[in-house]
Structure formats: structure tokens, C-alpha cells
Specification:
- The structure holds 2 protein chains of 2 kinds.
- Chain A is built from no helices and 11 strands.
- In chain A, strands 2, 4, 5, 6, 9, 10 and 11 form a 7-stranded mixed sheet that branches. Chain A has a 4-stranded antiparallel sheet with strand order 1-3-8-7, with no helix packed on it.
- In chain A, β5 and β6 form a beta hairpin.
- The mean pLDDT of chain A is 91.
- By secondary structure, chain B is mostly beta strands.
- Chain B is built from no helices and 12 strands.
- Chain B starts with a strand and ends with a strand.
- The mean pLDDT of chain B is 92.
- Classes of the chains: A mainly beta, B mainly beta.
- The interface between A and B is medium-sized, with 28 and 25 residues.
């Protein structure tokens, strides 16, 4: 099976712009989570989508949003970019059946490195 | 809410020596515990996980970890490290039914020849 793919791998944007990152989960995985990784704050959970619905949300401002499509692919959008948004954005997918209570391991993509200038 | 503390930010060790990377967690409910490894410019790769059952968990690349509920710890060990084990290691915790995974700050393992 192909792993989690993220596009683009690298991105340079200017303050005030917006950006959209894409994530394709492993085939059959229905849960997609997004994380922000920075040297100062480490790995922080942004949000999780399952069956096109946001199921969990971390402590990030409303400028960070996402969505999931019927094929489980997910996009993350950051509006009005700030310098502090420069980070590695990681997407992770996991297999989980609807109604299960298990927490399955998450498989991570290589990340999108966003630089805001 | 659950949280994770990795007690060492950097661990230097010589090749073929044993290593232990320490992880403590806090949670008011039962937890799932994970160790991930991150090589430069890559995503995270799962080393091992504890969901239930035996407290000694074996993972890939010769790593193992022991879940200690009374000490709320999940330390990662390897009896003999290789140069290729040089990487950042992350301990993570989640609660059953919740994919909001909380990560520790990471431990940079440097294996020297």
C-alpha cells in the first residue's frame, strides 16, 4: 500500500497570504489528523477529520481550518499567514471503523514545510 | 487532559552501548502509549505501541518499552544502538476513542562511533 502523501512538500508564502495543504491518507483509512511541528512548540495537534466531519480540534485560532472529502483526502487551510505559522505540517491517517473505541496508531506523511516571510 | 514529559532533550551514546529514553505521562483515564522516530526531513515512523495486555512491548529495529502504570512511565530501551539510530524520538499518548494524540517534546538520540 502507498503511504500517506502530502503536497506540496515545500512552500514559501508571504505574511497575509493564505495557503492550502493537501493530504492523501493510506487507502482504507478514514481518519485524518493534522499536526504542526515547530522547534519551539514541538508537535501540536491541530484537528482530526473522520468521515468528512471534524471530530477533534486542538487549541489553534480560527485561521486554521480543514476539511475532508468523501474519498478521505483532506485539506488544511491557513488564512492571513503570520511569521509564526512557519512550521512543518504533518498529516497522519489511521484505520478506524465507525463506532469503535480503539485508538489506532497513526501513520504519518513526510510533511509540508511552510515558510512564511 | 493527557500530557507527556520526555525527561531528556538530548541523549548522546556510543555505538553498541545500551540506551534508555525516558517518558512519563499524566492522564486521569486509561491510555494508549506510543513511541515514534523521526529522521531528518521525514515524517514520524511508529516504533511500538502499548494498547493493553503485556506491559513489555517489542517494536521495530530492536527497540522495546515497558509500561509502568504505578510510575506512569513508558521508557524506551535498546540493548545495543547503531549509528543509524541517530534521530529524534517522540513519546505520545492518547485516550481510547480519541485520536487527539499528545506528544512529548522529543529526545534527540545521537549515536557516536
Amino acid at each position: 500500500k502507498a503511504g500517506v502523501t502530502q503536497t506540496p512538500r515545500y512552500l514559501i508564502k508571504t505574511r497575509g497570504q493564505q495557503v492550502t495543504l493537501s493530504c492523501s491518507p493510506i487507502s482504507g483509512h478514514r481518519s485524518v489528523s493534522w499536526y504542526q511541528q515547530t522547534p519551539g512548540q514541538g508537535l501540536q495537534f491541530l484537528f482530526e477529520y473522520f468521515s468528512e466531519t471534524q471530530r477533534n480540534k486542538g487549541n489553534f485560532p480560527g485561521r486554521f481550518s480543514g476539511r475532508q472529502f468523501s474519498n478521505s483526502r483532506s485539506e488544511m487551510n491557513v488564512s492571513t499567514l503570520e511569521l509564526g505559522d512557519s512550521a512543518l505540517y504533518l498529516c497522519a491517517s489511521s484505520w478506524e471503523t465507525s463506532g469503535s473505541t480503539g485508538s489506532y496508531e497513526q501513520y504519518f506523511g513526510p510533511g509540508t514545510r511552510l515558510t512564511v516571510t | 487532559a493527557q500530557s507527556v514529559t520526555q525527561l531528556d532533550s538530548q541523549v548522546p551514546v556510543f555505538e553498541e552501548a545500551p540506551v534508555e529514553l525516558r517518558c512519563n505521562y499524566s492522564s486521569s483515564v486509561s491510555v494508549y502509549l506510543f513511541w515514534y522516530v523521526q529522521y531528518p526531513n521525514q515524517g514520524l515512523q511508529l516504533l511500538l505501541k502499548y494498547l493493553s495486555g503485556s506491559t513489555l512491548v517489542k517494536g521495530i529495529n530492536g527497540f522495546e518499552a515497558e509500561f509502568n502504570k504505578s510510575q506512569t512511565s513508558f521508557h524506551l530501551r535498546k540493548p545495543s544502538v547503531h549509528i543509524s539510530d541517530t534521530a529524534e524520538y517522540f513519546c505520545a499518548v492518547s485516550e481510547p476513542g480519541n485520536n487527539d494524540m499528545r506528544f512529548g517534546a522529543g529526545t534527540r538520540l545521537t549515536v557516536k562511533p
